[in-house]
User: Which sequence fits this backbone?
């Protein structure tokens, strides 16, 4: 039996706004699940319903198999870390971490042991006497996490916990959160709009858009088997390239270029005369003509050197795309070249629904 179950969960706010539609998910004990999607897609609302901070308008929420819709936040044995760390400025790191246990009247010795243990996991042992203002953003975030994990609850909810940190700190904290999860084994639900955070942390990712779940899967599944154009474009950096075109005699054309889709036939026959989307990832291409792939002539417009690889912005026919290549292979701007997309790296989507064509 799943540890956390969301069955047809909906949220309709008092002003009538329908923020979450028929959300279904089962989470196993110890899993790290990430909700990801653009701003306003309903991630925080769903997390807050799980925390008990927001009523569930309809649907059923089960904890360990028992209905928990009506349970208050405390009864749910859930700890939450918010975007703003909400530390007490006048309390030391030690007291901030200990606060929840002190309130519960837990024995001083037990508190001491658990604070020390939590501080060790989080690398805060040397900072226990400091006030929050004497800490870096990353250290403050660790204290906020410490306050949550010291409670030893079964479920850990995090709402954009890294969004106040700079890029470098985010990478470090991402690694630390993964380590904390390994060490505590706590079931974790983590909200972010950052696909890299989702991909690197999650056992499974829930991609949301406009209140609807678009796909649920492992990072591998979302990257290699996206269910629709939205997921394909959201997961991966730079995003997947999309070329729209009407299928004519088993081909799509864009400008002077043409792609013969006979290699991907299957259901494509049903799309004769209809619009489809031809998708390929910037990193899936090879420069030059290669066997078993689409050969696409293009013009190099701009290059962006990122270190080990370079993004090349190209125009092909009337379409634009980004190619990601080894920096040693960077072509000159304004040159004409041909690149190749292996047949098995191409995704075709229905032009109307955006769903993948199997
Ligand atoms: P973000 O990444 O910006 O935090 P999110 O995916 O977490 O976005 P939510 O905060 O869940 O999005 O909001 C989902 C939608 O519900 C938004 O359109 C938001 O404006 C709306 N919403 C949130 N709270 C309320 C409320 N109290 N009353 C009415 N609508 C609300």
Assistant:
């Amino acid at each position: 039996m799943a540890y956390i179950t969301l069955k047809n969960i909906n949220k309709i706010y008092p002003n009538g706004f329908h923020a979450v539609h028929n959300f279904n998910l089962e989470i196993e004990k110890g899993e790290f699940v990430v909700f990801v999607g653009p701003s306003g897609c309903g991630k925080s609302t769903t997390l807050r319903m799980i925390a008990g901070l927001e009523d569930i308008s309809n649907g059923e929420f089960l904890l360990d198999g028992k209905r928990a819709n009506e349970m208050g936040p405390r009864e749910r044995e859930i700890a939450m870390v918010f975007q703003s760390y909400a530390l007490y400025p006048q309390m030391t790191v030690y007291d901030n971490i200990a606060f929840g246990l002190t309130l519960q009247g837990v024995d001083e010795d037990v508190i001491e042991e658990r604070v020390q243990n939590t501080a060790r996991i989080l690398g805060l042992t040397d900072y226990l006497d400091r006030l929050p203002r004497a800490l870096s953003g990353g250290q403050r975030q660790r204290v906020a996490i410490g306050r949550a994990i010291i409670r030893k609850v079964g479920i850990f909810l995090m709402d954009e916990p890294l969004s106040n940190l700079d890029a470098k700190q985010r990478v470090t904290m991402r690694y630390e959160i993964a380590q904390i999860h390994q060490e505590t084994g706590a079931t974790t639900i983590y909200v972010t709009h950052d696909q890299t955070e989702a991909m690197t942390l999650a056992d499974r990712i829930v991609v949301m858009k406009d209140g609807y779940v678009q796909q649920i899967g492992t990072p591998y599944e979302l990257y290699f088997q996206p269910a629709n154009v939205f997921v394909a474009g959201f997961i991966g950096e730079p995003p997947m390239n999309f070329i729209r075109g009407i299928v004519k005699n088993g081909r799509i054309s864009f400008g002077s270029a043409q792609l013969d889709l006979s290699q991907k036939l299957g259901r494509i026959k049903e799309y004769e005369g209809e619009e489809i989307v031809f998708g390929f990832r910037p990193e899936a291409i090879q420069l030059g003509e290669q066997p078993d792939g689409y050969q696409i002539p293009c013009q190099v417009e701009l290059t962006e050197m990122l270190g080990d690889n370079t993004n090349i912005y190209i125009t092909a026919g009337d379409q634009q795309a980004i190619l990601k290549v080894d920096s040693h292979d960077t072509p000159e701007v304004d040159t004409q070249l041909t690149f190749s997309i292996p047949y098995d790296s191409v995704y075709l989507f229905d032009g109307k629904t955006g769903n993948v064509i199997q």
In short: The first strand starts at residue 4 and ends at 12.
